[in-house]
Amino acid sequence: MSTLQKTGGIAAISEAIIYIAAFIFFGMIWDFPVDMTIMQKFAFLEENQTTLTIVNLFMYIIFGIGLALLVPAIYQRLKNDTPVLAQIASIFGIVWIVLIIASGMIANIGLDAALNLSIKNPEQAMTVWLTINAIVEGLGGGNEIVGGLWVLLLSIAAFKGHSLPKTLSYLGIFVGTVGVLTVYPADVLTEIFGLSQIIWFIWLGAYMLRSPQ
Length: 213
What we know:
Layout: H1 2-29, H2 38-47, H3 49-78, H4 83-118, H5 122-141, H6 145-161, H7 166-181, H8 187-210
C-alpha cells in the first residue's frame, strides 16, 4: 500500500504541473491567428504542429496516465471506511481517464487530418478542424463534469471516513462542485475548476507522500 500511495502522490503533483504548464502555454505563448484567412490559419497550424502535438500529448494523454495511477491509489485509501462511495467515485475516475486520453488522441489525429485536407479543400478542412475541436472540448477540454464528480465523491467519502485532512476534503468538495457546474458553458467555471484543482492536486500529492499508510 505504501508504494501505491507514494506513486499516487507523485502522480497527483505531476497532474498539477501539467495543469500549470497548460495554463502558461495557452495563456502566454499560444497565439492563434483568429482574424486571419483560412489559409493563414492552416499555415500557422502547420508551422506549429509539432509543438501543439506535444502539448496535447502531455495535456491529455500523459495527464490521463497520471490519473490511471492516482485513481486506484485514492480508492485504496478510501475503500475500508467508505467502500460504496469509494467505488462510485472510482468509476467516474476511470471514465474520466478514458475521456481525457481519447481527447488527446482525437486532437492529434484530427489536427493531422485537417492539415492534409487543407491542401485540397481549405474550407472543408476548417470545418473538420472546428468539428474536432468541438468533440475534444465536449469530451475533456471544456466540460469537466465527470472529473468534477470524481473529485466531489471521493472528497465526500474522505470527509465521512476521515481518510484525508478535513480542510483538504472541503477543498475537494468545492473543486468537484465547480467541475459539475461546468455543465453550464462558461469559461470562468472551467478556469476556476482548473486553478482550484491545481491546489487540490498539490495538497493531495504532498499528503499522500507524507502519509503513505
